[in-house]
Design brief:
Layout (H helix, E strand, L loop, with lengths): L15 E5 L6 E2 L2 E2 L3 H15 L3 E5 L16 H11 L4 E2 L6 H8 L6 E3 L14 H12 L4 E4 L10 H9 L2 E3 L1 H14 L6 E5 L8 H7 L5 E4 L4 H7 L14 H14 L2 E3 L3 E5 L8 E5 L13 E5 L1 H12 L3 E5 L12 H11 L4 E5 L1 H9 L9 E2 L3 H8 L5 H4 L6
Parallel strand pairs: 1-4, 1-7, 4-6, 5-6, 7-8, 9-10, 9-15, 10-11, 15-16, 16-17
Antiparallel strand pairs: 2-3, 12-13, 12-14
Helix pairs in contact: 1-2, 4-5, 8-9, 10-11
The site of magnesium ion has 4 residues, from helix 12.
Length: about 400
């Protein structure tokens, strides 16, 4: 069954519509450092404004423990949303209290209000379905319809994601509709050759994706911190690089499966090895099978793929018609170790087909490195949600909107 889309709710002029957005943006000293997630919510909110709906936007931010915590206030987000919409946005200092009720009651047609952080209320993420239901009932009083558009949370059974969608007439917003459309293309009949590029810090974070995607892809490229567990599984010493010893057997299994299925599993042939995990650390390029043969010996830490690997990866990506990339190739937060991530990002922008970037840090990396969102086919706003989608898991926040695989 397909996702119920916005138009299934009928004309919304004058209607109070609750929108669940994912405004979980990175903040530094109260300043938003990447507003990508707020921008991603604009199409749906603008559509509702244009229809003359009374728009009540709800979201979480960070991980407060079910009680108000000033540093997780959505106030800066409401301010930024107002700037991006080019119109005033009311802000309620609570989620289901008096301030929220007043803000909602004051909405005229086409007006927007943002309520305070959902997770300031224990009911939002409660393990107890009855508690979640009770909180969702309170939220539901603020609207006659519900639009779910926080893709980053659809893998969670939470009050504002799941129960609220059961209580009110509900549909997916444009962001969720787009995400599902693109990720579905990656799981069902992708155009071939299909390459998946994985990096990031740990194999353990990505086991599910590797297992689910391995039989479906033509090429699997491994960089980032997880490359060292693969190199070690091939018998190479990795000095003091990130190594998940308990996963060596699992990874050996992946290598064998790839071989057996004729999948091109491409591992780095060289790496940038540093004297320490630090931005200004001394560093050299070493062949992947000789990572301990550097001036740093067994203390060396691999922090990026090397230049030869960059070329091999870029060529493998350029030869593909569908590419999914998750996880930076190196510690891109430090300029000395960003080149591998930059090379892969650049190659993705040149794919003559669908290129998708998934993962919170990967999305932040391409923006930090100066790439434009529209140079890629799609940048997923959901880290965990997009991975769970690709793992083939059930996503409660999508199923409640009518979606079935
Ligand atoms: P995403 O959020 O895109 O899924 P991850 O959270 O899996 O990505 O991983 C991102 C992190 O991986 C980054 O902070 C980056 O510094 C780190 N990383 C990449 N390569 C290495 C490496 N060689 N050693 C240690 N950490 C690494
Ligand atoms: Mg991450």
């Amino acid at each position: 069954m397909a996702l119920r889309t916005l138009d299934s709710l009928g004309p919304l002029s004058g209607t109070r519509v609750i929108v669940r957005a994912d405004f979980n943006v990175p903040l530094k000293d109260g300043v938003i450092t990447d507003d990508g997630r707020i921008r991603a919510a604009l199409p749906t909110i603008n559509d509702l404004i244009n229809q003359g709906a009374r728009v009540v936007v709800i979201s979480h931010l960070g991980r407060p423990d079910g009680a108000p915590e000033a540093k997780y206030s959505l106030a800066p987000v409401a301010q930024r949303l107002s700037e991006l919409l080019g119109k005033p946005v009311a802000f309620a200092s609570d989620t289901v209290g008096e301030s929220a009720a007043d803000a909602v009651a004051a909405l005229e047609e086409g007006d927007v209000a943002v309520l305070e952080n959902l997770r300031f209320n224990p009911g939002e993420t409660s393990k107890d379905a009855a508690e979640r239901r009770e909180f969702a009932e309170k939220l539901a009083e603020f609207g006659e319809a519900f639009v779910s558009d926080g893709f980053g949370v659809v893998h969670r059974k939470q009050a504002s994601v799941y129960e609220l969608a059961e209580i009110l007439p509900s549909a997916a917003g444009q962001l969720i509709a787009t995400e599902v459309d693109v990720l579905d293309k990656l799981t069902e009949k992708p155009e071939r050759p299909y390459a998946v590029v994985l990096g990031g810090s740990k194999v353990s974070d990505k086991l599910g994706v590797i297992e689910h995607l391995l039989p479906r892809v033509d090429k699997l490229l491994i960089g980032g911190g997880m490359m060292f567990t693969f190199l070690a599984a091939q018998g190479h010493p990795v000095a003091s690089s990130l190594l998940e010893k308990d996963l060596l057997d699992t990874v050996k299994g992946y290598l064998a499966a790839a071989e057996e299925k004729g999948i091109d599993l491409i591992l780095p042939v060289d790496a940038v090895v540093a004297a320490a995990f630090a931005a200004d650390a001394d560093h050299v390029v070493a062949p992947a099978d000789a990572l301990e043969d550097t001036p740093f010996g067994a203390d060396g830490i691999g922090l990026d793929i090397g230049p030869e690997t960059q070329k091999i990866f870029a060529d493998a990506i350029a030869d593909s018609r569908t590419v999914f990339w998750n996880g930076p190739m190196g510690v891109f937060e430090m300029p000395a170790f960003e080149a591998g991530t930059r090379a892969v990002a650049k190659a993705l922008t040149e794919v003559p087909g669908l290129s998708v970037v998934g993962g919170g840090d990967s999305a932040a990396a391409v923006r930090q490195l100066g790439f434009d969102d529209d140079e890629f086919g799609h940048i997923s706003t959901g880290g965990g949600a997009s991975l769970e989608f690709l793992e083939g898991k059930a996503l409660p926040g999508l199923e409640v909107l009518g979606w079935e695989r």
